[in-house]
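Action item from last week, closing it out:
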Amino acid sequence: NLLSYRARTRTELRRKLTGKGFRPARVDVCLDRLEERGLVDDPAVAAAFVRDRLRHRPRGKAKLTSELRAKGLGGPLSGEVVDAVLADEGVSERDLAVRVAEGWLRRQGTAAVEALGASTRTAESEKARRRLYGHLARRGFRGDDLRSGIDAAVALARSPAVP
């Protein structure tokens, strides 16, 4: 029944079933059978999860890897899956950061947009930058990619056709 709603990792299924009172030895046997039949496939579940995130709620590699680890996928596997899906989708982490920053800017009020696009540094412009920085950082963007997102949002805020 758990698999009828969405695909799940082996670890997710183990947690759910043992939480419902099933013996761990019996759960492992059942999961082995499901894996033999192809109903439990951790790499496929991870790839589908990352693809869904990229399309609907973009995140950086760090956040995606962290979310996959929370689903029970090991560090090396989660990193490989994230890299493979980004390559398959033809998107870079920088592109995602820019898209997230532009989305953040579209949801802000006029005062925040004007502050972010101001040519001089003021307390309001610094506040807007900090908020955008925090937004991108919480979504797993780091370093140059994060800076690219901020720069794109600032450029968009300064353009005459702000969304």
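Closing note: The two ends are 45 Å apart (CA to CA).
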